[in-house]
Design goal:
This protein has 8 helices and 12 strands. The chain is an alpha+beta fold. The strands form 2 sheets. The chain has a 7-stranded mixed β-sheet. Strands 11-10-9-8-12 form a 5-stranded antiparallel β-sheet, with no helix packed on it. It folds into 2 domains: about 210 residues, BirA Bifunctional Protein, domain 2 (2-Layer Sandwich); about 80 residues, SH3 type barrels. Helix 3 crosses helix 6 and helix 3 packs parallel to helix 7. One of its GO terms (molecular function) is biotin--[biotin carboxyl-carrier protein] ligase activity. This is BPL/LPL catalytic domain-containing protein. Belongs to the biotin--protein ligase family. Keywords: Ligase.
Length: about 300
């Protein structure tokens, strides 16, 4: 469905076009669009401070001046060829929030696969990769609601789900991104430009259908796209820039609370929180070096032609 919807480079996001493509009951039905903002999550936060925003509302920004990822890492997001948006959700339980953590990257990976990306993978806790390179990042902020303060929304939680996806940009030309570090859908699907409105509609539909699954059903689906469990990984403790603090482990599963379970070289099982560590697949740095060498060779050949 998506591959037939060709995108015109540099075209602003069209909320009406997005609405016409949408096939959901709730997600995406209320759409707020702004060409430029610090980030879609900032816009969503301001809206939430001012009014009761319905479940499933989406905020889309063409260009972000202060896009951010987990642990306040910057996210290069000033290219209108890509997609930056926030979904506002109102789950009623912690269990629903945990499900969103797994469903969101899965929904993006499934949409990318529909666009012709071969074997996209989800990397706990919030990334989507292909061939050892990242093309989407997700950030989830949760606040508790009080019925006396929030009126008709009632007691529960509000989730500001920020998602950034590299879609039609050649990341090798992005000055703020090192070669070998990131990729995009167009770089992985045979250079087929994808309509951003169609991609967002697909993500919303995927997320809504995944929300209907039981936790067991969701995790079975997640396992098909998971790039960690069963494989060797590199664990990098946050706030520690010294590579000597990194250590090897093997990912063996996820706890009911959404933590990553790893097996250490001594055989002990350790529980890892997303707030405490960053994860890279085993062999990541060797693979990245190969991409950098290939990229440098291409640039050299291009410069000599």
């Amino acid at each position: 469905r998506l591959l037939s919807l060709m995108s015109k480079p540099g075209k602003p996001f069209d909320p009406k076009r997005f609405g016409a493509l949408l096939r959901t009951k709730e997600l995406g039905r209320a759409c707020r669009y702004t060409p430029l903002a610090t980030s879609s999550m900032d816009v969503a936060d301001k809206l939430l401070d001012q009014e009761n925003i319905p479940h499933g509302s989406v905020v889309v920004v063409d260009s972000q001046t202060k896009g951010r990822g987990r642990n306040n890492r910057s996210w290069s997001s000033q290219n209108v060829s890509n997609l930056y948006f926030s979904l506002i959700l109102h789950p009623t339980s912690i269990e629903e929030i945990l499900s969103v953590n797994f469903a969101a990257p899965l929904a993006v990976a499934m949409a990318a696969q529909t666009c012709g990306v071969k074997d996209p993978k989800v990397k706990w806790p919030n990334d989507v990769w292909v061939k050892s390179r990242k093309f989407a990042g997700i950030l989830l902020n949760t606040t508790a609601r009080n019925s006396k303060l929030e009126g008709s929304l009632g007691v529960g939680y509000t989730v500001n789900l920020g998602i950034g996806v590299n879609i039609n940009q050649d990341m090798a030309e992005a000055k703020s991104v090192s070669s070998g570090e990131a990729t995009s859908i167009v770089m992985e699907n045979g250079n087929v430009q994808i309509e951003r409105e169609a991609f967002l509609a697909e993500v919303c539909e995927n997320l809504e259908s995944l929300a209907m699954l039981s936790r067991v059903g969701l995790m079975k689906k997640y396992e098909k796209y998971d790039m960690l469990v069963g494989n060797d990984i590199i664990v990098m403790p946050n706030k520690k820039e010294d590579p000597t603090s990194y250590y090897d482990a093997k990912a063996v599963g996820y706890s009911k609370s959404g933590y990553l379970l790893v097996k250490l070289p001594d055989g002990n099982i350790k529980t890892l929180s997303a707030e405490e560590v960053s994860i890279r697949p085993g062999g990541y740095y060797e693979t990245r070096k190969k991409y950098e060498e290939v990229s440098d060779t291409k640039k050299s050949l291009k410069g000599s032609s």
